């Protein structure tokens, strides 16, 4: 790969990419299927929000400086088609979770209740009063849920929780 501006990869099969040969200094975003063994993600990619996991990642894809490689392998250079594939990748990326986030089977009853209350517009204090706990406990629980989802804000946590069917 001789990319200069950026590289986007869907590592779900059909396109074989040896990540050890990615050019240093070029921004890289890598999507893996959500069932990937996170230990298999190369260390140099982890922890930089360069790697995310996506449920139902359908196919392999390489986007590199206005060119796409799709399963086959076939190289695509038509600007309209590459732009469409890039928009598709960006859509998947926006809904994907950090690969550093450990796999989550679901929520505890307390987490689910707090998430639903907050999604319904209830404040931390009101949720705490309904649950017979403190607002600090509500914030601690939400912080844990956000960490498991890889969310940077409560709003993003709500979106990601809804996509996972937790709400």
Order of helices and strands: EEEEEEHEHHHH
Topology, number of strands: 7
Determine the fraction of residues in helical runs and give it as a percent range: 25-40%
Outline type: elongated
Mean pLDDT score: 81
Q: What proportion of the residues form beta strands (DSSP E)?
A: 15-25%
Which SSEs are present, and which pair or pack?
Blueprint: E1 7-10, E2 28-33, E3 51-54, E4 61-64, E5 67-70, E6 74-76, H1 79-95, E7 97-98, H2 109-119, H3 124-131, H4 135-149, H5 154-163
Parallel strand pairs: 1-2, 2-3
Antiparallel strand pairs: 1-4, 3-7, 4-5, 5-6
Helix pairs in contact: 2-4, 3-4, 4-5
Explain this structure.
The chain has 5 helices and 7 strands. With 167 residues, the protein is α/β, with parallel strands linked by helices. A 7-stranded mixed β-sheet has the order 6-5-4-1-2-3-7, covered by helices on one side. β5 and β6 form a beta hairpin.
Short structural description:
It contains five helices and seven strands, in the order ββββββαβαααα.
Which features does this protein show?
167 residues; alpha/beta; 7-stranded mixed β-sheet; 5 helices
């Amino acid at each position: 790969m001789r990319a200069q501006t950026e590289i986007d990869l869907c590592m779900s099969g059909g396109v074989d990419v040896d990540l050890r040969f990615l050019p240093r200094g070029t921004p890289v975003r890598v999507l893996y299927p959500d069932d990937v063994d996170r230990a298999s993600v190369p260390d140099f990619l982890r922890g930089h929000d360069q790697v995310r996991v996506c449920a139902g990642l359908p196919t392999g894809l390489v986007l590199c400086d206005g060119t796409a490689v799709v399963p086959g392998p076939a190289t695509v250079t038509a600007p309209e088609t590459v732009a469409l594939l890039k928009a598709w990748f960006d859509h998947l990326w926006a809904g994907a979770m950090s690969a550093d986030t450990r796999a989550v089977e679901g929520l505890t009853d307390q987490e689910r209740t707090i998430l639903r209350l907050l999604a319904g517009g209830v404040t931390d204090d009101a949720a705490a009063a309904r649950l017979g706990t403190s607002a600090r406990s509500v914030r601690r629980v939400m912080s844990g849920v956000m960490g498991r989802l890889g969310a940077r804000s409560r709003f993003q946590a709500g979106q990601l929780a809804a996509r996972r069917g937790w709400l």
